[in-house]
Structure formats: structure tokens, C-alpha cells
Amino acid sequence: MKRPNELVALLGILACSTVCAAGSDGSSRPRGVGPEFAKYYKDTSTFACISNPSIKIPFSSVNDDYCDCPDGSDEPGTAACSHISASSITSDFGDGVNRTPALPGFYCVNKGHNPSYISFQRVNDGACDYDICCDGSDEWARVGGTKCDNRCKEIGKEWRKQEEQRQKSMTAATRKRKELAETASRLRKEVEDRIENLEVERQASELKIQGLKVELEEVRARERGKVVKGQKQGKVNVLAGLAKERVEELRTILLEVRQQRDESVVRAAELEAILSKFKEEYNPNFNDEGVKRAVRSWEEYAARETTGGGSNAASDRDLDEICKPDGEDSGINWEQWENEIEGETELDLIYKIAAYFPPSLVNFIEDKLSDFRKLLVENGIVADTASESGESKAVIDARNRLSSAESSLNDVTSQLSDHRSDLVKDYGHDEIFRSMKGSCVSRDSGEYTYELCWMEKTKQKSKKGGMHTTMGNFVRFSSVTVDEFDASGKLVPQEKLALEYENGQSCWNGPARSTKVILQCGENDEILKVAEDEKCMYSMHVTSPAACDIPINNGKGATGRKDEL
Ligand code: MAN
Hints:
Blueprint: H1 7-15, E1 46-48, E2 56-58, H2 82-86, E3 106-108, E4 116-118, H3 152-226, H4 235-281, H5 289-303, H6 313-323, H7 334-341, H8 346-351, H9 359-378, H10 393-424, E5 440-445, E6 448-453, E7 457-462, E8 468-485, E9 491-502, E10 514-521, E11 526-534, E12 537-544
Domain MRH: 438-550
Signal peptide: 1-22
Organism: Polytolypa hystricis (strain UAMH7299)
């Protein structure tokens, strides 16, 4: 089954038989076969293609540099079937033949280091691939004179050193993660305790408010009993009304009496004139005893000093004043009194008594009255009407106590609501990010310094100065698949935990900035790389102990405790 032009392979075959000893475990396997596939190559007379065992070929056709099996399994040590391994769409042409590569690649024993598989295309391609095949066994045919020395000893040594370092770092990362998880659980407990305390505070606060409402009503009722207010209901106003009526009545009577007096005075004057004339004109010689007695009486009357019963100018002026109707310019200005009275208590009027005393006594009396009033207020006997609103101090104080209790209840309620939302918030597996919330890590990249604050924001700041730009606010966890080298140096897709930051500052002519933070396990929080994948859409690759041993939940909501709630 060999073709004449497959000289290179033939040379190789001459250099080493088809069934080169390959096993580090001492077993003999064809070249390029890994220990897990050794069982297919045990029969040294016939070989059955691994994925299509009905296709059988002589064992001598194994590794003869000609691809016989549709799955390439007859050429584990050459590149003859590399077209199969290179292509991935060979599985089914409807003929029932499986064309999927049966082997992962050429097996490099790499004694002194780690065995690994290298892709068949790189077998005998004239290049030493020490990164995968440190023993150089992939270039066994020495194509173009290529000779790859076995470097596994030194490469293995360096790898072990690095691996030891990596292991140490991973151990430290795992320990840190454990500490972070403990801190997170303590912080959660603190929130739960706080909620419990706040709940007690809330209930106490509600009871206090009920009590203060009752107290306010009681104080109001009590103070209402003490305060005399209003023009209509006040006793002083009633008294003033009565006094006004009485004054009017007396004034009317006075006017009548004054008129009667004036009339009597006129009449008396007329009579006096008659009697004077009578005295002058009577005949004293006419011996009439009755007339003589009358004249004597008149003379005695006329000789008596006047008693002032008649009018004189001064008393008339007084009477004129008194008889003027009450108003602004005369008598009592009732309107002014009534206005003054409004809003005042009887007590206030009593305190004004001081105004009626001689000025020398006024200060003394005012001091005494003020002290007395204070004493009455302090002892709850009279209401304190100091406030402009007309409410007593006691009512104002009671209302202030109620308002302050209500405002503390609002505060407690809002704290409770914040803490409760915090408890149901997704903080990731083990709520690990609860302990990291608000802590930040930054990295210089290009013309910017980038900052990541866990569970909060991502920011970008120009090194030239100026304000920072928000690249997003944390919204949720998600996951991304990225290709990573595995231990054997192969790129394999790995699912990574990611944190989505969205709704950052708007981009000019573009979307609001957003950042996808892709996490990988590491000893420290460190931004490894920042990229602007599309305009204003950034990705950050970050290491953190928080990302170690985390089951990825495909970004479907909470990765931790929230699912249990
Ligand atoms: C700033 C930065 C850049 C961004 C542009 C868009 O310069 O935020 O990352 O691409 O604005 O205008």
C-alpha cells in the first residue's frame, strides 16, 4: 500500500521499525500512540481501524505513511492522515463510515517532562516543537536534516519550578478565597443582625409614635382648657361687651339728667327773678305777717352761697367730654380694645395691670408678674402662649417629639429596605463578592488608567488629567468562553465567570459605555489586559482569588445564595 514518492516516511521507517517502542511504562506501542490507545494496536498481524473496526488492514500498514483508515488511526506516528485531523467535517457522508479523527495527535513521550499530543500536521514538518514535544520525537524522520535534541530534562525542570510556583500561588489563592468567603458570610450575618435590630427598632418606634400621638392629643386638649382665645368666646370680650353697653346706658342717663338740670336751673332763675321783684315791690307798711315771712325767707335764701348746683364752665366741659360717643378721639376706644384682646388670654390682660400703676412701680410689678406667670406655666397651671402660631410650647414640644419619632421611623424603614434588598442581591457563588464590594484595582494601558471597582463601577482616566469616564455600573454576572492553553499546551475553550458593567457614560455618537470583566483564578486582584473591542465596549481580563473554584452558572442569575432564597 505504499507509494514510491513517500520516501521521507520510508527513510523514517528504515530508521525505526513501524512498531517503535514508545511506552514510558515499558510496553511496546507503535510510534505516536498514547497509552490510552495501546489496546487497539496489540494484535500485531491485523489492525482494525478504531472507529470503523470492520475495516481491517495488515499490521504492517500501520505507520507506513499511507492513510488507510477513514479515521486516520492507522497512522498514529506520521503526518499521512493529518488532513483528517486538520479537517473537522469528515464525520458522515451517509455511508456509515466514521471519518472523525480517532486519535488526538502524535503522542510525545517527553520523558523527564509531561507527555503530550502534538497535531499530526506538525509531525516531521522540519521544525522542532519543543513547547509540546520537548523530546523532539515529532521530528523523527529528520526531514531536511532537522534534528531535534531531547530537551525534556531542562524544560521539565523549568516547568516543575514554575509549576511549583503556580501551585503555591493557587494554594494561596484558594486560601484567600476561603478567607473572602468567610468575610462574606460574616458580612451577611452582620446585615441579618442589623435587620433584626432594625426590626425591633421599627416596632419600638411605631409604638412610641402611637404613644406620642396620644400624648399630643392630650396636651392639645389640656392646653385648650387653659387658653382663652377669640373675640366671641373670651370672658374678657363678654365683659368688655357688657361694660360697653353699661357705659352707653350711663351716658344716655347722664345726658338726660344734664338736660333736666339745665331746665331746672332756668326755672330756678325765673323764680329768683320773680322773688327779687316781689321783695322790691312789696309794701312793708302793709302789716301782712305772711308776706313779711316770705320776704325774710327769700332774703336768707339769696344770702346763702351757691352750692354749685348750677352749671359752671369747667364742669360743663367735663360733662361735654364724657357725653361724647366712644371712639378713636374720645372716651373709650372699644374697637382698639377688642383688637388688642384678640388672641390674648385673660391672664395676659391681668398682666397688663402693671400699666395702670405709677411708673415707679411698673418695673417691679412687671418682674413679679412675669416670675409668677413663669411659675404658673412651669407648674402646668396656665398655658404658655409664647408661640406666634398661638400654640402653646407644650403642644409644640409634643408635636416636635412626634415629628422626630416619625422621622427616625422613616430612617429605620429605609435602612431596613436597603438591607433587605442587599440580602437578595446576587453576590456570586458563596457571596464571595460581598466581601470585595467597593474595593478597586487599576492598571495603566495606553493613554488611560483603567479602574475596576468590584460590584460598583469601571472607570477610564486619561493620563493627561481631567475627569474620569465611567465605563459602566455593575449589573449582573455572566459567563464567557475563551480559548486557553491547557496543561499540555493545547488551546482549549474554557468557560469563565464574567461581570457585566453597563450604562456607563454615553459615547459620542455611540452607545453608553459598557465593560465585560472576564475573571480567572489568581492569587491577587489584578487587571491583566484591557481592550476596547468595539467603540466604547470594553473588556477587562482580571485575576482574583474570588474566581477560584467557582462553578459557572452561565450567567443565569445568582451564582450563590440567591438561588436558595
Ligand atoms: C474617549 C475614550 C475612548 C472612546 C472615545 C469615544 O476618548 O472613552 O475609549 O473610544 O472616547 O469617543
